[in-house]
Design goal:
By secondary structure, the protein is mainly alpha-helical. It has one domain (10-458): Amino acid/polyamine transporter I, CATH 1.20.1740.10. 73% of the residues lie in helices and 1% in strands. The protein is built from 19 helices and 2 strands. It has helices spanning 10-21, 29-36, 41-68, 74-82, 85-118, 129-149, 152-186, 197-203, 213-227, 243-270, 274-281, 285-300, 307-326, 329-334, 342-345, 356-377, 392-415, 419-438, 440-458; strands at 382-383, 386-387. The chain has a two-stranded antiparallel sheet. The longest helix is centred in the middle third of the chain and has 35 residues, at 152-186. 56% of the residues are buried.
Length: 463
């Protein structure tokens, strides 16, 4: 009586994967990556490809897990079957407390920044931060109410917004790539690589990061946020028709399509104009977003100025997807008799077949993370008297890749299949290590926060 229904076909499952991955981050991350690699777009493309290649084996392994293990909430199923019950609980607790609610708050905060820009505010200005907090909370409440009271609407909304997000990415990627190639052919710039002419031209007058190989590691770790999200789709493995066949296909097909679109879009947006590349090269989230908007305006004229609308739609779409996914997290633990109040978290609404109690708790945790973001923007976090930037996306990506390595190694030993599991373990380990190489201080703090929250979680484990 507490089992979710199988109701999604392959197309909807693929839209879930793509919809969870393609979020608001792709609209400003190309600027950050361009900044990290000092305007060398060729090196930026390398960072995107390496990031995708490091994560692709992980996605492939999870597609294999999906074809073999199935109970409730894929990531918890796989961790429990491969490593053990307690590790499965840790994986479930991570998704329920650290990954999905934190992602919910992050997307709401980013979307509120786009909304502030639309109405003429400067998102980074501290005077407007209370406005952004209010708008973020409003978006979170609205998506929660839609999922709580009309659970069929969010699935259709996810499919529609996924398609809407891909349209501007493909258009910009195609147009920007053509402009970059024409600029190289005409010799109008001094390119550092085949597709780097406007960015290289803009970078000449700007100071360099001069961090050597560390800048590439920082760029690769930044791509992890853009590729992030496919793991949230694992929550729906038992709601897909013929899931042992369809869900692995959806995972690989969705991730492959997104990787191609991301690389194409990055080349396009940084080649749109030297002015937009110059904005991105100045660093900072506001400049990254403004640089992207400038690129769209340069290519598409006044219509490109309305990119901000697509950004907001994208934010609402991924926010809705986050709410869909995280509502299953505590429910998955409760189905195993674990976690806080399992007898309440396991209940499904008789009319909508949705775990409403689990959803309410997840949204509450999401609001707690929103407060952390709000406090961080005011500089409340310090390290020995110096401001410390606690990046939630980096925190949960760092923790996630750390959790993957033992799973792949145990699977290799248990099943005596070593090639792909070891490649996937190496890829996840590489992404984990990039955080230590990029910023050891942040990696140490993230490790401490993860251990602290994990200890809290084990207070609720039950037989």
């Amino acid at each position: 009586m507490n089992e979710l229904k199988r109701q999604h076909n392959l197309f909807v499952a693929t839209c879930f994967v793509v919809g969870f991955i393609v979020g608001t981050g792709i609209f400003f991350l190309p600027g950050r990556i361009l900044y990290e690699v000092d305007g060398n777009v060729t090196l930026g493309v390398v960072a995107w490809i390496i990031g995708g290649l490091m994560i692709a084996p992980c996605v492939y392994m999870f597609s294999q897990f999906a074809a073999r293990y199935e109970k409730m909430h894929g990531f918890v199923d796989y961790a429990e079957a491969i490593v053990g019950r307690r590790y499965g609980y840790l994986a479930g607790w991570f998704f329920a407390v650290m990954y999905q609610p934190a992602g919910y708050a992050i997307i709401a905060w980013i979307t509120s920044g786009f909304t502030a820009t639309l109405v003429g505010f400067v998102p980074a200005d501290t005077r407007y931060l209370p406005f952004r907090f209010f708008i973020s909370a409003f978006f979170m409440i609205m998506t929660f109410m839609m999922n709580y009271f009309a659970p069929k609407v969010p699935v259709k909304f996810n499919v529609a917004t996924t398609i809407a997000r891909l349209i501007p990415l493909v258009l910009m990627g195609t147009a920007g790539l053509a402009i970059g190639l024409l600029a190289n052919w005409a010799g109008g710039y001094c390119p550092e690589g085949l597709t780097s002419s406007p960015a290289s031209h803009a970078a000449v007058a700007l100071p360099r990061n001069a961090r050597g190989g560390a800048s590439l590691f920082a760029a690769i770790s930044a791509t992890a946020f853009a590729f992030n999200g496919w793991q949230a789709a694992l929550a729906f493995n038992t709601e897909v028709k013929d899931s042992k066949r369809n869900f692995p296909i959806a995972l690989m097909l969705g991730f492959g399509a997104v990787t191609v679109v991301y690389v194409l879009y990055f080349i396009g947006v940084v080649n749109a104009s030297a002015e937009s590349a110059s904005l991105m090269m100045q660093g900072g989230g506001a400049n990254f977003a403004q640089g992207t908007r400038s690129a769209f305006t340069h290519i598409f004229g006044r219509a490109g100025g309305w990119l901000i609308i697509f950004m907001i739609i994208s934010g609402l779409g991924i926010l809705n997807a986050c709410c869909l996914g995280m509502s299953r997290a505590m429910y998955a633990l409760a189905r195993r008799g674990m976690g806080p109040m399992p007898h309440r978290m396991v209940e499904l609404d008789a009319n909508t077949n949705v775990p409403n109690n689990s959803m309410v708790l997840a949204v509450g945790i999401g609001f707690a993370w929103l407060c952390v973001i709000f406090a961080g923007t005011f500089g409340f976090f310090e390290w020995f008297g110096r401001p410390f930037t606690f990046s939630l996306p980096d925190f949960y990506n760092f923790s996630f890749f750390g959790l993957l390595v033992p799973m792949f190694l145990c699977y290799a030993i248990k099943e005596r299949k070593f090639f792909f599991p070891l490649i996937a373990a190496a890829g996840a380990g590489f992404m984990f290590i990039t955080y230590w190489l990029g910023s050891p201080l942040h990696a140490a703090v993230y490790s401490g926060v993860f251990v602290g929250l994990a200890l809290v979680g084990f207070c609720f484990i039950r037989r």
